[in-house]
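Notebook p. 47: complex prediction with pyridoxal-5'-phosphate.
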Amino acid sequence: MAINIEKYSYLLKQLNGKATLVAVSKTKPLEDLQALYDLGHRDFGENYVQELVDKATLLPKDIRWHFLGHLQSNKVKYIAPFVHLIHGVDSLSLLKEIDKQAAKNNRVIDCLLQIHIAKEETKFGFDASELSGSTEFNHWRNVNLVGLMGMASFSNDTNLIRNEFSNLKSLFDANKQSSNKEATDDTVEMKNFHFTILSMGMSGDYEIALEQGSNMVRIGSLLFGERNYKH
Ligand SMILES: *Cc1c(COP(=O)(O)O)cnc(C)c1O
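Predicted complex, structure tokens below:
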């Protein structure tokens, strides 16, 4: 069997109910997902819309599908009917499109804002400064902003990674406070914020992420083995 059952059990023990394990199954065959499903696992993450739709069609309906990575606006409509959580909301135009497609499906879709925390140049994600006090997140009825997602630098420097995760945790805590306040005239702009989820940590850095307060880790290669191509 292609899944690493020992690693899976070990991970569950490490997470100890304090963090959700999203099994990142991109590029992996249905049998691998089914095998993990048969062990009781329900949270799976995919990066490609077509692959996600195909797998969701063929696998059991009680799977909670997480969309990871960059989502193109013109493809939101394909996953809007069923997606459980979108981790990588990286622009307001994408948020607007998710809201529109969620409305069409009579749903409120849970989303995480992707925050740019790594030193590396990337095109995707918000800067921390764009979050605080912004009223731009105000307008949506069919999206629920339930937290933040971030990816640390791809590096062997554990101090660097630790700092990046720590920064994301601070930002999460700051916005969690404002989202927990009763809506008043001052805080009404935060009505879309209901922060409970901090998605950080992958196969190579999840232990640091947990130590820094992550409550959702996204783990692929540790569970399913290396992918044929890196994403
Ligand atoms: C692929 C991917 C993961 C999982 O990566 P591994 O290193 O295989 O655990 C996690 N998060 C995102 C956004 C990904 O694209």
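Notes: Helices lie at 5-15, 30-38, 49-58, 76-79, 92-104, 158-180, 206-211, 221-224. Residues 24, 26, 47, 68-69, 202-204, 218-222, 231 surround pyridoxal-5'-phosphate (CB under 6 Å).
Next step: compare against the earlier run before touching the bench.
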